[in-house]
Structures are given as structure tokens and as C-alpha cells.
Amino acid sequence: MTSTVTLNRHGDIALLCIDNPPVNALSPAVVDGLIAAVDAFEADRDYKALLLYGEGRTFVAGGDITAFDLPDFSARPLNRMLNRLESLDRPVVASLHGTVLGGGLELALACHWRVAHPKTQFGFPEVKLGILPGSLGTQRLPRVVGIEMALDLISSGRPVDAVTAAKAGVVDELREESPLEAGLAFVEALLARGAGPRRISERNVPADSVPADFFDRALAQARRAKPFHPSARAIVLAVQASLRPFAEGEAEEAKLFEQLRTSPESKAMRHLFFAERQAARIPGLPKDVELRPVRSVGVLGAGTMGGGIAMNFANAGIPTTLVDTTQEALDRGLGIIRRNYEATAAKGRMTTEQVEQRMGLIHGAIVDGALADCDLVIEAVFENMDLKKKVCARLGALCRPGAIIATNTSTLDVDVLAEATGRPADVVGMHFFSPANVMRLLEVVRGAKTAPEVLATVMQLARTIRKVAVVSGVCYGFIGNRMAEVYMREAEFLMMEGASPAQIDGAVEALGMAMGPCRMLDMAGIDVGAKTVIEYGKTGGLPPDDSYRAVVRRMFELGRFGQKTGAGYYRYDGRKPVADPETARIAKELAAQHGIAQRSDIGAEEIVERLMYPLINEGARILEEGIAYRPGDIDMVWTAGYGFPDHQGGPIYLADTIGLPVIAERLAHYAKARGNAFGYWTVSPLLASLAAQNKRLSDWTPA
Ligand code: 3H9
């Protein structure tokens, strides 16, 4: 055995305990321990049964993801052990609790019987890492729950609760006791009734349990819905192989797993898995910092953003007060929230009681005094410095001592707003992304005077409301919008040079971006984008270049606010964007006005380089200025908030895939080709230095 796996005797029952904190992942040491335990059990004929359970908060949450990159990694030892475990001639029982995921569920399915705590979650989340269950999950699960449910669970990665798992036959009994007590009671009952081994691999999956064209349709659907994720197709093929004899299916799964594990897509997605967890860590923050309790939240501003923010807290069961200045604005805001919940209920993802319960947690008010007792108040008024300063001053006076005051600004100087409250230590930026009830990202902006416990409290709260929180320092646009600004800048220059919005969007959507820049801003609102640029101009932040973001400003003047007014960069047929000759005319007119030559030879490669390389370059600046703590934080911002494709790992990870010398060379090329009067193409010192040393941005840490 190893220190992570122990085998102890309890009368004639062998107790196999896995103890590998924090989540009992199946590390190489755990696998070795399991092999040794099976050997010992096999050799000792006094044992009548083997009981497996996990120490700590969970049974086993999966294979050890950190081991997948080891040069000698192989799933074979684990898989061989699982088959040996299943073939044992005395009953093998798994007692489950916590999160039984991936390799953990595969281990459980290799056992003959399963007992679980009612709160246990089950699932195969491998698809989120760009792989498939590689320890016979694609072969054993269909033999228990059938093809259709197995394919659904493995393809979606969605966990199911213990009751669902029990109904589907994954679990034999639910018990409330501790894993050890529940397991012992189950095994003793099993032995008392003389039950023996029961092996899933010996079952067959009837080929006629699904229509003849089931797998062809599933493959077509995987290609259509997930064109950039080879795992989606591989999962269909692996589940299809479960119709064949077990050993053949096993070989097929092993082949597909190995292809995926070594694929660039999976490596990128694994990078994001760890980046997400790293982002939650705040360097230099004392570990014992005492969090402020947040039992109630106030949101000032009942517009789309404020309403979406309020929903997050109601969803987490936190009473929320939503305030606006007029009854009409408040009613409109509450009405939108209700319609959102009702739409979710109509899709069957919520009950009508839940709709009422959540609405019951959101209290509307038209006097801001209603915010006085809230533990956290978030202002979500229009993005205008004067207005926000006024609001912050009011909140500073109004909120109870110790309350946290957050601003939802997307670009403005949080330090200025913090000073306006008169209590800057209580202030933090909480930049939600629209729609705030849906988007996973939350940028948490740390002001110069933000108290450590305020920052830590908000990071913890982000976990409670299931956001991916990334800390940013104070600068224009923080991490995300600052990078988006250079991306939009080039999109508009390309438009003025003659590229159409569809060409621009198409080029980056072919990379896997959820939405190109033109569709994105049309959806967010051209007015919102233009006002931000105008506000930034007032602070003296814009380059002295009249052609800078000239398109968005002209669109704004013309009332073309995007999807909501039926026209922006595109014209809208309902929600469908269609090419609008008027946009080409406006771009041409602006090009003439600013002396920009139009060309007909702009290709997809140029578009991608001109959108992505300045964005990466800005990311490097954000790192060297200490605005982001680490490279992975930038990748999280862009994948969780801007639709950057997860299979590319985020912009910094992508930069390293391309190679920094290539990026530096292309930036220099565009500096020459396009001119560099305003420094748009100046390579950041960090990027230049790492490129010269042929190093990676992802490995960079501040000195
Ligand atoms: C698999 O099983 C493949 C098999 O089919 C084939 C194998 C041959 N490995 O998320 P948290 C770490 S693939 C290594 O903050 P929570 C995590 O990095 C796997 N490390 O906690 C973090 O470390 P740190 C399929 C892992 O309470 C710490 O544990 N399984 C693993 O919010 C705490 O994590 C999955 O994909 C792992 N498998 O959530 C499940 N899992 O403290 C992935 C976690 O140093 N895990 N860590 O930052 C999860 O979804 C969540 O961690 C879980 C707990 C729900 C379990």
C-alpha cells in the first residue's frame, strides 16, 4: 500500500481507504496503492468482501489531471487494476460521498455494488478537459444506464444527483451515514443474504436499444455543435464501441483517450482548469484575513445590468434590495427579472415555486435609504464619471459602517470613485459582464486602498454566486475591456480600409471565437461602446488620432445603436445580422475623411493577426504593469467573459502556441506597413524581451 491507500481488516471485511487530499484524485501513487491493495485482498482468502471508501470531503473526484502531462503517463495500470478489481471472486463494494467524478466514477463502476450518501454528485466531466472517460467509463456506463443517457452524460459533462443516479441503476442504495458506516452496513447486509460479485462488463448493450441511425445523427450533431472539440466526436465513437464485446470497446476507448490526451485542444483546456483555480488566489493576502459577513446585498440601478446582478444573489439565496429612482424604472427592471426567470421555468430548468421564491428575495425600492443596512451595495448606474462619483459619495454617507461598496464600472477609475465615497478601504470594483445573470466572469477591481478583507470577501462571494473571479488592478478598462479596446480599434480600421463586418467577424469566428467584434458590439450596444470611448477621451486617455474608433462614434451619431435599434455595424432581421451597404458607405466616407486608403485584398490571415496580436501585446503590457497577477488570469478573463475559445486556451496561451518571436515580428511588420505614429504597433518591452529569449509569456512571473 502507499500512504494514500490503506487496507485494514474489519472482521472478515477488507477496508480500502483512499486518502489523497484535497479530492482523492487518482494520482500514480494512489493507483500503485490500489494495485497493492487488490494484490493483498486477493492473497488473503479470509476476507469475505472488499469495501472501498474515501477519506475527507469526497470519494474520488477523478484521475489526477496534473499527471496527464507526465512523460510516462499511461492509463493502462489503472485500467488493468479496475478490471482485476471487477473480476475478484468476492463482493467488492464502493461507498460513495461528495463528488464522484471521472476516474472516481469509473472506479465505482468497476466495483460490484455501490452505496452512496444522498448528497453525492456523479458525473463524467472529462469533456470539459477535452478528453473522454479513459478508464472504461464509456464502456461501463452504457451497460448500466443505456446508450442514450450515457452519451448525454458523457457528452455534456453534466453531473447528476444521487437520486437520479440511483434511479438509473448507478447506485444500489442511498444511506445517510458516514461512508465507512454506510459501506459496512451495506456489506454486512450483502453478506447476510449471500450475494456474490456482479460485473458490469459482463452485461451487453442491446444494439437495437437505439434507432439504427442514432450514432450517425449524434456524430453529425457533435460536428455541428462542437466543431473545434475533437472530444465531442470521440465520445460518440467510444460509446458506440460499447455495443461491441467489452475488450474491443476497451481498446477503442484507450486509443481515443490517448489521442485526446495528447491533443493541443485538451492541453489548452487543462491549462484553463488550473488557471481558473489559480485566479482565486490573491498574492500577498494574509491567509487568516477575516471575511466580512454578506447576508444582504443592495443594487443601485434597476437597468439590464443591475437586474442581472440582483438575480445572481437571489439565485444564491441572498436577500437583495434593488433600487431605482422612479417606480416606473423599478417596475420595468423587476418585470425583466421575472420574465427571465419565467423563461427559464418554461424551459423546464426551474419550477414556478422557485420563480416565486427568487422573486421573493428581490425587494424593490425607490428610495436609496433602503440600502442603508445592506452588507454589500453595488452601484450599477450609467457609465458616466460625474454620475458615478455622485452616487458613490451618496453611498459612502448612506451605507452602514463596515458595509462594502462596489462599483460595477467597466472602464472608469475605481480609485477616483473610491475617494468619492470618503471611505476608500470599503470600496472595490465588481465588473459583471452582460448578461450578468449568465456570464461566468467577474472582474474584481482592487483599488489602491481596498482593504484586504474587502477583496477576500468579494472573492469568496464570487464563488458563492458561481462566478469565475479574476482580480484586476486599476487602469482604463481593467484587463478585459482594455484589451478589447485595441481589438475594436483594429476592427474599425479594417472596416475603414474596406473589410466588411462579416469578413472581420468570420475570420475570428473561424478560430472559434463565439462572436466576432462587430456582432459583439452590436449586441452590447454601439451607444454603450461609443459613450465609453467618449468618456475616455474626456480623461485625455485617447491617442491624438481623429480616425480612432471613428466608426463607432459615427454610428452613435446616426442612432445606429446595434441590435436594439435594428442597425449597427449590421442591419438586423429580428436577431439575425445581415450585411448593410450603409455600413460600407459610412466606412468609405470616414476613410476618405481621414485619408485611409481602401483596399480589396484584406484576407482572413491579416484580419486575425491585426485583431489578435495587438490584443496579446496589450495583455503583455497588463502583465508588466502588474494589472493582472499572472498570465493565466488574462486567459480566464477572455475565455469566461469574451467568448474566446477554450480549445485555444486564452490569448496568452495562444500567443505561446504561435510563438512570441512570430508575434513580435508581425507587430513590427504592421508598424511598417500601417505606420506607427500613435504607437499602436510598438511591441511591449515584456513581449519583446521574452521573444528575444524565445521564452513563453505563460511562464512569466513578476520579478
Ligand atoms: C479523469 O478522471 C480521466 C479519467 O477518465 C481517466 C484517467 C486515466 N486532479 O476545484 P477546487 C485540485 S479526468 C488533480 O478548487 P472545489 C484543484 O486543482 C478528471 N487536481 O475545489 C485544486 O487544487 P489547488 C475528471 C484536482 O471544492 C483542489 O483540487 N474529474 C483534481 O471547488 C481543489 O479544487 C474532474 O474533472 C483532479 N482531478 O471543487 C473533476 N480535481 O487547491 C475536476 C481538483 O492546488 N474537479 N483538483 O488549486 C472539480 O470539478 C472540482 O475540483 C471539485 C471540487 C468539484 C471536485
User: What are the distinct ligands in this entry?
Assistant: (S)-3-Hydroxyhexanoyl-CoA
* Main pleated-sheet profile: 8 strands, mixed
**Could you estimate the helical fraction of the residues in percent?**
40-55%
**SS-based class:** alpha/beta
Number of helical stretches of at least 4 residues = 28
C-alpha Rg, in Å? Answer: 28 Å
Note poorly predicted spans: none
Reading side by side through the largest sheet, how are the strands ordered? 12-11-10-13-14-15-16-17
Total strands: 19
Portion in beta strands: 5-15%
Mean pLDDT across residues: 96
State the shape. Answer: globular
Map the helices and strands.
Blueprint: E1 5-10, E2 13-18, H1 28-43, E3 49-54, H2 76-87, E4 92-96, E5 99-101, H3 103-110, E6 113-116, E7 121-123, H4 137-145, H5 147-156, E8 160-161, H6 162-167, E9 173-174, H7 179-192, H8 214-225, H9 230-240, H10 246-261, H11 264-279, E10 297-300, H12 304-315, E11 320-323, H13 327-346, H14 352-361, E12 362-365, E13 376-379, H15 385-398, E14 404-407, H16 414-421, E15 427-432, E16 441-445, H17 452-464, E17 468-472, H18 480-497, H19 501-509, H20 517-524, H21 526-538, H22 550-557, E18 571-573, E19 576-578, H23 581-594, H24 604-624, H25 631-641, H26 651-658, H27 660-674, H28 685-692
Parallel strand pairs: 2-3, 3-4, 4-6, 5-7, 6-9, 10-11, 10-13, 11-12, 13-14, 14-15, 16-17
Antiparallel strand pairs: 1-2, 7-8, 15-16, 18-19
The structure holds (S)-3-Hydroxyhexanoyl-CoA.
